[in-house]
Amino acid sequence: MEFISEGLKNYLLKYCDPEDELLKTIDRETNLKVSMPRMLSGHYQGRVLSMLSNMVRPSCILEIGTFTGYATLCLAEGLTENGSIHTIDVNAELEDMVRANFSRSTFHDKIIYHLGDAIRIIPEIEEVFDIVFIDADKKNNGAYYSLAIDKLRSGGIIIVDNVLWSGKVLERKTDQNTAIIANFNKMVTEDHRVDKLILPVRDGLFIIRKR
To answer: Angle at Cα 131 formed by Cα 129 and Cα 136, nearest 5°?
Structure first.
């Protein structure tokens, strides 16, 4: 399901900040060389992530789901001078591309790239996070959320991608993945520790603020 028309998407892009050349290159190479390139955040969502990060001015970010590193670099734009971003991905096949992308960035010394199971790695990171971005395997969203919120400072935010699942969350008969996402959304809605709303950006961004 497309939530807005192609014309309106182009209008939104016209009136937001441009991508830098590295982000354009990552977008292009991901679409040319990587399967399921739609997983990349892309220009408009990337600017949303950058804006949120710049508003929070985080000292430490956790990203679950690196893919090719596009969103990582967008989030890094808001880091404080001595800030850092921990990004976790399970796909070792993309490691060389991801490391090359990070090495070309001015934020390369702020990025800590973890390869492996996020459920194992998150408890090992001894940090308090200001922002957490969850964009990985949807079946574990609940586990990632539970692990991350205990490491999130009061006033910090969790951002969860793909929570509208191409509009399938509206369907009465759902497949397993849609049911998992719908149940996650319900769980967050019932969590009284947080303020929350869903933005209809691309496939839906859940913005969750810890009280």
So the answer is: 105
The pTM is what? 0.96
**Spatial contact of 17 and 45, defined as CB atoms under 8 Å apart:** no
Per-residue tokens: 81: 């001078």
Q: What is the pLDDT of residues 112-159, one digit of tens each?
A: 999 999 999 999 999 999 999 999 999 999 999 999 999 999 999 999
Quick one: pLDDT band at residue 173, thresholds 50, 70, 90? Answer: confident
Task: Tell me the mean pLDDT in the region 72-86.
Answer: 98
Measured CA to CA, the distance from residue 41 to residue 60 in angstroms comes to 20
Output DSSP code: residue 192.
T
User: In this structure, are residues 3 and 163 in contact, taking their beta carbons and an 8 Å threshold?
Assistant: no
CA 78 to chain centre: 14
CA 196-183-118 angle, 5° bins: 80
Task: Convert 33-95 into a string of H (helix), E (strand) and C (coil).
Answer: HCCCHHHCCHHHHHHHHHHHHHHHCCCEEEEECCCCCHHHHHHHCCCCCCCEEEEEECCHHHH
Round to whole Å and give the CA distance between 4 and 93: 34
Q: How far apart are the first and last CA of the chain?
A: 33
Beta bridge pairs of residue 63 = 87, 133
For residues 20 and 156, what is the distance between their CA atoms, to the nearest angstrom? 27
Tokens of 143: 């586990």
